[in-house]
Protein backbone atom coordinates (compact mmCIF):
# COMPACT_ATOMS: atom_id res chain seq x y z
CA UNK A 1 0.00 0.00 0.00
CA UNK A 2 1.45 3.31 -1.02
CA UNK A 3 1.86 5.82 1.75
CA UNK A 4 0.76 9.31 0.86
CA UNK A 5 1.72 12.09 3.24
CA UNK A 6 -0.85 14.52 1.81
CA UNK A 7 -3.68 12.08 2.61
CA UNK A 8 -2.75 12.49 6.25
CA UNK A 9 -2.56 16.23 6.72
CA UNK A 10 -3.30 17.05 10.35
CA UNK A 11 -1.70 18.99 13.16
CA UNK A 12 -0.90 15.73 14.95
CA UNK A 13 1.05 14.65 11.87
CA UNK A 14 3.11 17.83 12.15
CA UNK A 15 1.42 20.01 9.54
CA UNK A 16 0.98 23.71 10.22
CA UNK A 17 -2.58 24.11 8.96
CA UNK A 18 -3.67 27.61 7.98
CA UNK A 19 -7.18 26.92 6.66
CA UNK A 20 -9.45 23.93 5.99
CA UNK A 21 -12.94 22.86 5.07
CA UNK A 22 -14.43 19.45 4.36
CA UNK A 23 -12.91 19.24 0.87
CA UNK A 24 -9.57 21.05 1.06
CA UNK A 25 -6.81 21.76 3.51
CA UNK A 26 -4.10 24.43 3.30
CA UNK A 27 -0.87 24.32 5.27
CA UNK A 28 2.46 26.12 5.37
CA UNK A 29 5.16 24.52 3.23
CA UNK A 30 7.85 23.01 5.47
CA UNK A 31 10.65 24.35 3.28
CA UNK A 32 9.21 27.61 1.98
CA UNK A 33 10.69 28.80 -1.31
CA UNK A 34 9.01 32.20 -1.02
CA UNK A 35 8.17 34.66 1.71
CA UNK A 36 4.69 33.09 1.87
CA UNK A 37 4.45 29.48 0.68
CA UNK A 38 1.31 27.44 1.26
CA UNK A 39 0.26 24.06 -0.11
CA UNK A 40 -3.42 23.61 -0.88
CA UNK A 41 -4.53 19.98 -1.27
CA UNK A 42 -7.85 18.19 -1.71
CA UNK A 43 -8.56 15.92 1.26
CA UNK A 44 -9.45 13.16 -1.15
CA UNK A 45 -6.47 11.53 -2.80
CA UNK A 46 -6.31 12.87 -6.33
CA UNK A 47 -3.27 11.50 -8.04
CA UNK A 48 -1.50 13.13 -10.93
CA UNK A 49 -0.78 11.11 -14.00
CA UNK A 50 2.18 11.68 -16.26
CA UNK A 51 0.18 14.57 -17.60
CA UNK A 52 -1.97 16.74 -15.40
CA UNK A 53 -5.40 15.18 -15.53
CA UNK A 54 -7.53 14.64 -12.51
CA UNK A 55 -9.94 11.80 -11.85
CA UNK A 56 -13.66 12.21 -12.41
CA UNK A 57 -15.18 10.99 -9.17
CA UNK A 58 -16.89 13.71 -7.13
CA UNK A 59 -15.00 14.68 -4.02
CA UNK A 60 -16.24 13.18 -0.82
CA UNK A 61 -14.77 13.65 2.61
CA UNK A 62 -16.16 10.31 3.82
CA UNK A 63 -14.89 7.99 1.13
CA UNK A 64 -12.15 5.62 2.12
CA UNK A 65 -8.78 7.05 1.19
CA UNK A 66 -7.03 3.71 1.34
CA UNK A 67 -9.42 2.31 -1.19
CA UNK A 68 -8.77 5.33 -3.38
CA UNK A 69 -5.03 4.66 -3.39
CA UNK A 70 -5.60 1.04 -4.47
CA UNK A 71 -7.97 2.26 -7.15
CA UNK A 72 -5.45 4.75 -8.36
CA UNK A 73 -2.84 2.03 -8.82
CA UNK A 74 -5.30 0.07 -10.87
CA UNK A 75 -6.17 3.15 -12.87
CA UNK A 76 -2.53 3.77 -13.60
CA UNK A 77 -2.20 0.24 -14.94
CA UNK A 78 -5.03 1.01 -17.32
CA UNK A 79 -3.86 4.52 -17.91
CA UNK A 80 -3.12 4.33 -21.61
CA UNK A 81 -6.51 2.87 -22.54
CA UNK A 82 -8.72 4.61 -20.06
CA UNK A 83 -7.37 8.11 -20.31
CA UNK A 84 -8.63 8.31 -23.88
CA UNK A 85 -12.01 6.79 -23.06
CA UNK A 86 -12.52 9.15 -20.17
CA UNK A 87 -10.97 12.27 -21.60
CA UNK A 88 -14.23 13.99 -22.42
CA UNK A 89 -15.69 13.41 -18.96
CA UNK A 90 -12.53 14.55 -17.27
CA UNK A 91 -12.31 18.00 -18.73
CA UNK A 92 -15.15 19.99 -17.19
CA UNK A 93 -14.38 18.81 -13.67
CA UNK A 94 -10.72 19.52 -14.14
CA UNK A 95 -11.00 23.17 -14.97
CA UNK A 96 -13.64 23.88 -12.33
CA UNK A 97 -11.55 22.11 -9.72
CA UNK A 98 -8.44 24.03 -10.73
CA UNK A 99 -10.39 27.29 -10.62
CA UNK A 100 -11.89 26.64 -7.19
CA UNK A 101 -8.44 25.79 -5.81
CA UNK A 102 -7.06 29.00 -7.32
CA UNK A 103 -9.89 31.02 -5.72
CA UNK A 104 -9.14 29.55 -2.30
CA UNK A 105 -5.43 30.27 -2.74
CA UNK A 106 -6.09 33.87 -3.76
CA UNK A 107 -8.34 34.37 -0.73
CA UNK A 108 -5.63 33.03 1.60
CA UNK A 109 -3.11 35.47 0.07
CA UNK A 110 -5.66 38.32 0.34
CA UNK A 111 -5.99 37.59 4.05
CA UNK A 112 -2.21 37.56 4.43
CA UNK A 113 -1.94 40.95 2.70
CA UNK A 114 0.09 39.68 -0.26
CA UNK A 115 -0.14 42.13 -3.19
CA UNK A 116 -1.78 40.57 -6.30
CA UNK A 117 1.23 41.37 -8.49
CA UNK A 118 3.49 39.37 -6.15
CA UNK A 119 1.65 36.04 -6.32
CA UNK A 120 2.33 32.72 -7.98
CA UNK A 121 -0.22 29.90 -7.87
CA UNK A 122 0.60 26.75 -9.77
CA UNK A 123 1.20 23.03 -10.07
CA UNK A 124 4.26 20.93 -10.76
CA UNK A 125 3.93 18.64 -13.73
CA UNK A 126 4.66 14.95 -13.16
CA UNK A 127 7.27 13.49 -12.89
CA UNK A 128 8.59 16.77 -11.43
CA UNK A 129 6.12 16.75 -8.54
CA UNK A 130 7.64 15.44 -5.33
CA UNK A 131 4.33 14.17 -3.90
CA UNK A 132 1.82 12.41 -6.14
CA UNK A 133 -1.25 14.00 -4.58
CA UNK A 134 -2.62 17.03 -6.35
CA UNK A 135 -1.26 20.13 -4.61
CA UNK A 136 -1.41 23.77 -5.54
CA UNK A 137 1.62 25.87 -4.61
CA UNK A 138 0.29 29.19 -3.27
CA UNK A 139 3.13 31.69 -3.05
CA UNK A 140 3.52 35.29 -1.99
CA UNK A 141 6.80 36.59 -3.41
CA UNK A 142 9.65 37.43 -3.23
CA UNK A 143 11.36 34.07 -3.63
CA UNK A 144 14.17 33.10 -1.31
CA UNK A 145 17.64 33.15 -2.87
CA UNK A 146 18.14 30.34 -5.46
CA UNK A 147 14.66 28.88 -4.92
CA UNK A 148 12.83 30.24 -7.94
CA UNK A 149 14.03 27.70 -10.54
CA UNK A 150 11.52 25.01 -9.52
CA UNK A 151 8.63 27.41 -10.06
CA UNK A 152 9.57 29.09 -13.31
CA UNK A 153 6.51 29.95 -15.38
CA UNK A 154 6.88 29.67 -19.12
CA UNK A 155 4.62 31.98 -21.04
CA UNK A 156 2.46 30.73 -23.85
CA UNK A 157 3.03 31.55 -27.52
CA UNK A 158 1.01 31.11 -30.69
CA UNK A 159 -2.01 29.04 -29.60
CA UNK A 160 -0.25 27.55 -26.57
CA UNK A 161 -1.27 28.66 -23.05
CA UNK A 162 2.05 27.48 -21.66
CA UNK A 163 5.56 27.06 -23.06
CA UNK A 164 8.15 24.38 -22.26
CA UNK A 165 8.49 23.86 -18.49
CA UNK A 166 7.57 21.69 -15.52
CA UNK A 167 5.53 24.23 -13.58
CA UNK A 168 2.14 25.50 -14.72
CA UNK A 169 0.23 28.48 -13.36
CA UNK A 170 -3.30 27.67 -12.18
CA UNK A 171 -4.77 30.00 -14.81
CA UNK A 172 -2.67 28.47 -17.61
CA UNK A 173 -3.76 25.01 -16.44
CA UNK A 174 -7.44 25.92 -16.33
CA UNK A 175 -7.32 27.45 -19.80
CA UNK A 176 -5.51 24.46 -21.32
CA UNK A 177 -7.94 22.02 -19.72
CA UNK A 178 -10.88 24.10 -20.89
CA UNK A 179 -9.73 23.82 -24.46
CA UNK A 180 -9.34 20.06 -24.14
CA UNK A 181 -5.57 19.88 -23.82
CA UNK A 182 -3.49 17.68 -21.59
CA UNK A 183 -0.96 19.58 -19.56
CA UNK A 184 2.60 18.36 -19.84
CA UNK A 185 6.18 19.56 -19.89
CA UNK A 186 5.89 20.46 -23.56
CA UNK A 187 3.90 23.51 -24.73
CA UNK A 188 0.15 23.05 -24.30
ZN1 LIG B 1 -2.83 11.30 -1.17
ZN1 LIG C 1 4.92 20.60 -6.15
Structure description:
InterPro entries: HIT-like_sf. Keywords: Hydrolase, Nucleotide-binding. The chain has 188 residues and is of the alpha+beta class. It has a single domain, classed as 2-Layer Sandwich (HIT family, subunit A). It has helices spanning 65-77, 79-111, 170-178, and strands at 17-20, 24-28, 34-42, 119-124, 136-143, 167-169. A six-stranded antiparallel β-sheet has the order 1-2-3-5-4-6. Helix 2 (79-111) packs across helix 3 (170-178). The longest helix has 33 residues, at 79-111. It is globular and about 40 Å long. Bound molecules: zinc ion (2 copies). The site of one zinc ion has 5 residues, from loops.
Entry keywords:
single chain, 188 residues, alpha+beta, HIT family, subunit A, 19% strand, globular, binds zinc ion, HIT-like_sf, nucleotide-binding, hydrolase activity, hydrolase
| Major beta sheet, strand line-up | 1-2-3-5-4-6
Regions with little confidence, pLDDT below 50 for 5+ residues: 83-93
CATH architecture: 2-Layer Sandwich
Ions, cofactors and other ligands present here are: zinc ion
Structural class comes to alpha+beta
Number of strands: 6
CATH superfamily: HIT-like
Q: Provide a count of the helices.
A: 3
What is the terminal-to-terminal distance?
Answer: 33 Å
Task: Write a concise synopsis of the structure shown.
The protein is α+β, with helices and mostly antiparallel strands and 188 residues long. 29% of the residues lie in helices and 19% in strands.
Spell out the blueprint of helices and strands.
Blueprint: E1 17-20, E2 24-28, E3 34-42, H1 65-77, H2 79-111, E4 119-124, E5 136-143, E6 167-169, H3 170-178
The chain binds zinc ion (2 copies).
One zinc ion is lined by residues 124, 129-130, 135, 137.
